[in-house]
Amino acid sequence: MATQRILDFLATRRPNGPCLVVDLDVVRDNFRAFEKALPDSKIYYAVKANPAPEILRLLAAMGSSFDTASVAEVEMAMDAGAPADRISFGNTIKKERDIQRAYQLGIRLFAVDCVEEVNKIARVAPGARVFCRVLTDGEGAEWPLSRKFGCVPAMAVDVLRRARALGLDAYGVSFHVGSQQTDLAAWDRALGDAKKVFVTLAEEGIVLKMVNMGGGFPTRYLKDVPVAQAYGQAIFSALRKHFGNAIPETIIEPGRGMVGNAGVIKSEVVLISKKADNDNVRWVFLDIGKFGGLAETMDEAIRYPIVTAHDGTETAPCVLAGPTCDSADVMYEKTPYPLPLSLTIGDEVLIEGTGAYTTTYASVAFNGFEPLRSYVI
Ligand SMILES: *Cc1c(COP(=O)(O)O)cnc(C)c1O
Question: How many other CB atoms sit within 10 Å of the CB of residue 312?
């Protein structure tokens, strides 16, 4: 939802061109809601969701930790005031020299999902803590993370055993249930897998200490989603069920759930046209598209709420497309988007729920369009 602060900002500043406006008050509320929903878990904000320095500074000051994917993100978190012991290098795919650089910066917590990555860490980050990511099925997620990250639980046992043998601290298990996960039971399945790894290694005297339960917490787009409290309860019951009264240290890594609903993109209708006189579907072209910040409309996965000044009047289905000269720059076509018939060229529209995965998840200057501007207020 566009907050009053965002609407006031747009009304007074009248920024030219498409832009994202993020309301820090919403980020603050989200952080507090996660703290309240999962009081025993440490929050590692997934920097990739939106690395705006104002957001990182706010979260660092509130005591958040940070999940980072590169040395650049490690440095952004540190510049925002996070000490190295509140930063995790959570990408399972890292160059050895980047691991080394992060280690020099003081980072001691690294993700792995294979012995090859463990070998790198052992060479350049001696004694570091490592956690092994296990695969999840991604069921129930609107943006599943596929098989790119993680290994099967049986292999996680080998990976962590190897870590211990090489002098690393075999610290725990991680998973990510898939982004925009609306099935509360997803964490239960993944925690069951994590528990298996704990049990097998405990039999060999390797006592894991931590479960990193990843991100996946949703933002409300067109459909209602469960509130943070419901996730907290489901996750706590699953922890009890699988770990009894020996619940390990836990981490969550919200990205979308922390910033998604804090941002709104202002865009302008560039063109409305038809492909034939008798077409009943209009084409609506905005000044932002798949390459300018709406990459998550790929495969029509994320459907953003679009607000116009004509809402409440009669609508008709539209194909929604971006402004670039690439035919892939179409957001919604398989499932057309209903927009008011009175919408006209030059109208402004607000694309809600766009605080996550927009500003940095875009091309640099495709077709000469400048990167999405962002205002954090
Ligand atoms: C992207 C990512 C996250 C954040 O996921 P959301 O679904 O946006 O909450 C958390 N952890 C890791 C390791 C990630 O790659």
Answer: 7
CATH no. for 24-259:
3.20.20.10
pLDDT digits (tens, 9 = 90+) for 293-348: 999 999 999 999 999 999 999 999 999 999 999 999 999 999 999 999 999 999 99
Write the CATH number of the domain with boundaries 261-376.
2.40.37.10
Query: What is the CA(257)–ligand 1 centre distance, in A?
Result: 10
Q: Find the helix or strand (DSSP H, E) in which 19 lies.
A: strand 19-22
Atom of ligand 1 at shortest distance to CA of 216? 7
Closest atom, ligand 1, to C-alpha of 48: 1
Enter the tokens of residue 174: 């991680």
Q: Which residues of 67-92 are buried (b: 16+ CB within 10 A; e: fewer)?
A: bbbbbebbebbbebebebebbbbbbb
Predicted structure pTM score: 0.97
The rounded distance, in Å, linking the Cα atoms of 86 and 61 is 12
157 CA distance to ligand 1 middle (Å): 23
Pocket around ligand 1 at a 6 A CB cut-off? 46, 48-49, 67, 90, 176, 179, 214-217, 253-257
